[in-house]
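Quick check before the chapter quiz. The format below is the same one you will see on the exam, so make sure you can read both the input and the output lines.
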Amino acid sequence: MSRDTHHQRKLSICFVSDFFLPHVGGVELHIAHLAGKLAERGHKVCVFTHSYNGDDNNTDSNNNETYSGVRYLKSGVKVYYVPRVTIRGTNCCFPTIFGVLKIFRIACVRENVNVVHAHQGGTLSHECVLHAKTLQIPCVVFTDHSLFGMNDDVASIHSNKVLRMTLGEADRAVCVTNAAKENTCLRGGMNVVPVRRKKTKKRKGRDDDEEEEVVYELRGFDPRKIEVIPNAVDGEAFYPPSRATEKRSEGKSKSRSSGSESSKNISNSGSAKRSGKKEVTIVVCSRLTYRKGIHLLAKLIPLTLKRNKNVRFIIAGSGPMEPHLREVCEKTHKKECKGKVEFLGDAKHENVPNILRRGDIFLNCSLTEAFCTAIVEAASCGLVVVATGVGGVPEVLPGVTMVTSPAASEKKSTMETGMGGRRRKLKAGKPKEITSSFLAPPTVSGLFEQLEKAIALVANGEIGDREREALGDQILQKYSWSAVAKTTENLYLDVLLEKEKRKKKRKKTVEDEENRDDEKRDDDDFADRVIEKCTSQGVIFGPLLCCIAALTKLYLKALEFADPAENIRERSNFLTTTNNHPIIADSSKRQKKYGNDAMHGDDVDIGRFLVSKRKRRRDRRRRE
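Here is the expected output.
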């Protein structure tokens, strides 16, 4: 199969993660956008995650709906919400190793999955990578979204051990920045070790007969198998205020009265008001936790307001450090902060673009970030970004934006002015270069210094609608979900093509390959996996992983004996041909028969399993 024809192949992709909608976060939105774009490219995509209960603290506070069973997104992506016990206060499942194998096998067989893409964040993704390799899924990819410690404490030691196991099973790994790639390589056990000394001939000008040369060997996960694919931003939601004005005016009625009213409403929160009063609005939109540097923000806000009377803050988000931040602004420094700090609380994601467009500067005080999608979204809305230069943040922001003159067509265009209908030509401004982002060390003095520069830049009128639109265009061109989906698709296809070539070479080198049994070849591959784990994962952790892999293989054999894959496919084909239901259309008959947790569409078979499991879980809770 040639490379061009291979890249036209349609895949069946399964995303696995503990974090997914309705909970909103960076990983959740990344999976949702990427899955939708891959579905648009003609691939079959599903998501495998745990269920969300309305009474849990893990979901959005404004959403009390229960998500369990199979649902469909508007993009047509199927989502398996599997009932699992989660750790309270987080979205991570309790580790069971074997508990998810049965339902994961059913989902992979039903969807004919040939690509499993797990996303870092919890135990479910690590377990499914192990199960995918046991199920002999051709392509297994793992994405690491965050930066973690290097064996600083007990939690880091154990999590890094699990990461090594996952990277050993994965065919490829993906990181969002080069800093994240370096962090993943070091945590994954990459190390260069001297293995032997090699004698070489003496060089000219030396008296020794021979000299020794040290030979090094790379151990751990090969960094060449890690691809850097950044996150992206939704250009349909995040755009500068000038475009928001155009879209709102187009959506209004054609009458002049309604048009004037809309322009007034926009000017109240837009750049007209800011330019008239010289007021600078700083937006903070993040989770209010220690990792986001809220303790630095609590000291920075009073200091900034004391120096600048024309500055106000908008804070969107919630978290454990919200009471501390409110106390500082409302009690400790009430004089400086009175009427200057607005707390919006936990904002829905669909409202974030409008919040960002209200501001001039976006402030991010994080102590560690692998990518930080929030600063990319803010820059796409035309905000000047002041952020801590930690992790992968220096790679993400452009730093400088070139504001070009209007196009030739715009130079020749004319516009009406005055009642007499006079016309004048638009004057084209000269290209100029502006500083669009300011990076600082994670200290109060460093952030204050850079924030003062950004405030002076905006207050002097150097950042107008044209500059904000240029900044937004620069970010949207660099971080596009279509480009990310295409790069990810090529990664999947390259892995499959490489495995097919390797399989052909193996058939040519092994004698009497046609007479060998398929099960024997599978056992040989499994034996190689066990040997590799035992030799590369340490004295204690290696044998433990060998036992887990062996037990997983035995459990899978038992599942195949009890419920063969052919039977699952037959049931799936029968239900698909006899039940044609629209996307996300609930069936009232199924809801009466199986309850609110029943499946949508043609997924009754797997729905019975999930519903019965959920009922047993409810009964157990009642007994307790």
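If your answer matched, good. The longest helix spans residues 481-509.
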